[in-house]
Amino acid sequence: MVGGHDYFVRLVDRFYDAVESDQRIRPLYPDDLTEARHHTALFLVQYWGGPRTYDEQRGHPRLRMRHAPFPIGQVERDAWLEHMLDAVRAFPVHPEAERMLVDYFEHASTAMMNVL
Ligand code: HEM
Predict the structure, then answer these.
(1) Sign of the C-alpha dihedral computed for residues 21, 104, 2 and 43 taken in this order
(2) Domains assigned to the chain
């Protein structure tokens, strides 16, 4: 519905380009974002019904556990979500698909919060 693997690669690249210059969250990430881009794209491909390459390369996602080392409060969550929603809107998809993506990113980013 959104264009498969290539759509998520474009989405995630746009998202991380914005993260690069956001001092609210840039410090949480490693200097080199190459792996983060790759893993996040594969995760989203898998989450939205595509090939399970993420699981093969990384094992079960356990995203809350993987995010536990990074202090994620309201500010960090909001910054993350702002960039992801900007990326979603940068590559228009069917309105129903956009609504599902936005709902998911809103809920999942809130679920990733681990500090007040
Ligand atoms: C919808 C919510 C989110 C999803 C689906 C998501 C997804 C992911 C994925 C798939 C990874 C790579 C895991 C791996 O190594 O296999 C990752 C890493 C990471 N995420 Fe998230 N994330 C979300 C929310 C957030 C939020 C709110 C923050 C706060 C800034 C955040 C910060 C990070 C950081 C710092 C890494 C580590 C990157 C690295 O070590 O390469 N994430 N995320």
Answers:
(1) positive
(2) 4-111 (1.10.490.10)
User: Which of 40, 57, 104 to probe ligand 1 with, by most ligand atoms within 8 A of CB?
Assistant: 40
User: Ligand 1 centroid vs 67 CA: distance in angstroms?
Assistant: 6
Q: How far is the centre of ligand 1, averaged over its atoms, from the C-alpha of 108 (Å)?
A: 10
pTM over 0.90: yes
Over the chain (116 residues), the average pLDDT of each successive run of 10 is: 97 98 98 98 98 98 98 98 98 98 98 96
Instruction: Give how far Cα 32 sits from Cα of 2, 38, 76, Å.
Output: 28, 12, 19
